[in-house]
Amino acid sequence: MTTSLPPKRILITGGSGLLALNWACRMRDQCEVYLARHTHDIRLRDTRVVPLELESIDSLLRRLEEYRPEWVVHTAGITSVDQCEREPALARAANAVLARNVAEATARLGLRLIHISTDHLFAGARSMYREDDVPEPLNEYARTKLLAEQWVVQAHPEALVIRTNFFGWGHAARRSFSDWIYYGLRAGEALTLFDDVFITPILADRLVAAAHRLLELGASGVFNVVGDERLSKHEFAARLAHAFQLPEALVQHGNIRNARLLAKRPLDMSLSNAKARQRLGASLGNAAEFLLELRQQDQNGRRDELLAAIAE
């Protein structure tokens, strides 16, 4: 596949979600950004908020022809693991069927597609899963996200499928993992974080930059776009507390085996980013870099802007 020029216009589904909002903030100075809304009103400077029905391919085709994006980023879906377990039909519709619709519509129109997947696809019996490792989903969320990947690749073979675990500033109705830690510690709450669950987190803006560069390089198929470090959730929280000068003593040790969670979860969700690093010719970054950038975003107003971006 040949390389692509940077897009002049992108459309992001799931526009009120924290990844879509951070994606828009990262890219709005470089291209036109269309945020596709479903139920929530969105107010974000230098972006255009547009209606988009993902349930109908015909409607999707009409809207995409009207908006004329060059790239589409599909972030919409249900991310609550326990909600997916309680409502499997809804999870399949929101996570897999909508992804297939977007893939089919963008393929018909010859649009480049970035599909956001998850690090939740494996059983977690070992560390640093690669793109060619065989998935072994443990819960309904993972099963629907795996089905989405399969349907997207079938419908749009040139799509870029990103497996990731991201964090960044969110809003009152949709807080990220890092938000929960930050606001809890700032309020003086003791937080219990699992020291037996491992992830390879990446800052949303770094994910955005890497995904765009991969598509510009002509990449397609599955790529792990995650940070360079494997951390327990407890260690990540402790590092965030240190970076923001919040009380590290409030970050307490916990064990997921003692937690009463509805859906079974993998203990190790860490992914290897070697394939992405090789294609990009660069590191994707570590937690210290990400947390410093997250703090700089706060100082530059990103946190406050996103808090005000969604109208209830």
Looking at the structure, what is the overall shape?
A: globular
Helix and strand run:
EHEEEHEHHEHEEHEEEHEEHEHHHE
Oligomeric state, counting identical vs distinct chains:
single chain
Classify the beta-strand content into a percent band: 15-25%
Report how far apart the termini are: 43 Å
- Counted up, domains total 1
Helix/strand class: alpha/beta
User: Helix count, per DSSP?
Assistant: 11
Keywords:
312 residues, 11 helices, two-stranded antiparallel sheet, Rossmann fold, globular, 40% helix, seven-stranded parallel beta sheet, 16% strand
Fold topology:
Elements: E1 9-12, H1 18-27, E2 32-37, E3 41-42, E4 48-51, H2 57-67, E5 71-74, H3 81-86, H4 88-109, E6 112-116, H5 140-155, E7 160-163, E8 166-167, H6 177-186, E9 191-194, E10 198-199, E11 202-203, H7 204-216, E12 221-224, E13 231-232, H8 233-243, E14 251-254, H9 274-280, H10 287-299, H11 302-307, E15 310-311
Parallel strand pairs: 1-2, 1-5, 2-4, 5-6, 6-7, 7-12, 8-11, 9-14
Antiparallel strand pairs: 3-15, 10-13
Explain what this protein looks like in three dimensions.
- The protein is α/β, with parallel strands linked by helices and 312 residues long.
- The chain has a single domain (9-311), classed as NAD(P)-binding Rossmann-like Domain (Rossmann fold).
- The chain has helices at residues 18-27, 57-67, 81-86, 88-109, 140-155, 177-186, 204-216, 233-243, 274-280, 287-299, 302-307, and strands at residues 9-12, 32-37, 41-42, 48-51, 71-74, 112-116, 160-163, 166-167, 191-194, 198-199, 202-203, 221-224, 231-232, 251-254, 310-311.
- Strand 6, helix 5 (140-155) and strand 7 form a beta-alpha-beta unit.
- Helix 2 (57-67) crosses helix 4.
- The mean pLDDT is 94.
